[in-house]
């Protein structure tokens, strides 16, 4: 009887699509590939789930196949399954998103599929509902960046406060007051001020900082430890 229930169900295709976001120092960008050299349609890193693959394994393989990139951290974002999202066949897509430092990956991107970075605020025509996926990924990024220092994943290991401000202005697509931003960031006490200054942009130069992940983990653990274990749902 159990097998009969399986036979009565419909078979659907499963796709994996990845929103890879990066920061180039000025703008928040998304890595896209062109669907057909002669066409003007671009897409996220997308492909099909194979019979013997897990979702994360498939997502990583597809990103590698289309861009040549390896060791890219991918976090599951959401599932997209509207009946008419793919006009050819009923397809469920599992979307992932990732934050990378563009400088770390720019030279490693394969040209086989014409992978290219685009401003997240000036996207070309995208395939199917990929625009909705990008919008949801941006919303998730903004939510996480407001509560956790996730933005540092997009910066070099050493950075200036103006560079950090440009990043958060790119994430939220707005301008922040320089003095207030610096004061709030430094008040978190998660940055280490370095002796080195950035040269060539001003006479005085701006000091470099680094993010102290150990301090952040200590603060997080301290907060968790004040909550009785009996009150935490595991």
What is this structure's SSE topology?
Blueprint: H1 2-7, E1 13-23, E2 28-34, E3 42-43, E4 45-48, H2 55-67, E5 75-80, E6 91-101, H3 102-105, E7 116-119, H4 130-145, E8 159-160, H5 161-172, H6 178-187, E9 191-198, E10 206-211, H7 213-225
Parallel strand pairs: 1-6
Antiparallel strand pairs: 1-2, 1-4, 2-3, 2-7, 5-6, 8-10, 9-10
CATH superfamily of the largest domain: Nucleoside Triphosphate Pyrophosphohydrolase
Assembly type: single chain
Number of domains: 2
Do you know the CATH topology of the largest domain? Nucleoside Triphosphate Pyrophosphohydrolase
* Class derived from helix and strand content: alpha+beta
Number of E strands: 10
- CA radius of gyration: 21 Å
Indicate the mean pLDDT: 87
Strand content: 25-35%
Estimate percent helicity: 25-40%
Q: Helix and strand string, N-terminal first?
A: HEEEEHEEHEHEHHEEH
Largest sheet: 7 strands, mixed
């Amino acid at each position: 009887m159990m097998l009969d229930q399986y036979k009565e169900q419909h078979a659907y295709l499963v796709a994996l699509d990845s929103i890879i976001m990066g920061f180039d120092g000025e703008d928040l960008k998304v890595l896209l590939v062109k669907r057909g050299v002669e066409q003007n349609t671009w897409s996220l890193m997308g492909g099909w789930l194979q019979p013997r693959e897990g979702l994360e394994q498939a997502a990583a393989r597809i990103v590698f196949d289309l861009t040549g990139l390896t060791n890219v951290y991918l976090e599951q974002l959401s599932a997209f399954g509207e009946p008419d999202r793919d006009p050819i066949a009923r397809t469920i897509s599992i979307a992932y998103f990732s934050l990378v430092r563009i400088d770390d990956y720019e030279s490693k991107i394969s040209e086989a599929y014409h992978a290219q970075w685009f401003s997240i605020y000036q996207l070309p025509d995208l395939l199917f509902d990929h625009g909705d996926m990008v919008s949801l990924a941006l919303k998730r990024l903004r939510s996480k960046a407001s509560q956790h220092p996730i933005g540092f994943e997009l910066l070099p290991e050493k950075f200036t406060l103006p560079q950090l401000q440009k990043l958060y202005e790119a994430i939220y697509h707005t301008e922040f007051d320089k003095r207030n931003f610096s004061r709030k960031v430094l008040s978190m006490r998660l940055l280490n001020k370095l002796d080195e200054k950035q040269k060539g942009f001003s006479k005085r130069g701006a000091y470099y900082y680094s993010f102290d992940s150990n301090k952040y983990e200590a603060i997080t653990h301290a907060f968790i430890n004040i909550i009785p274990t009996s009150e935490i749902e595991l």
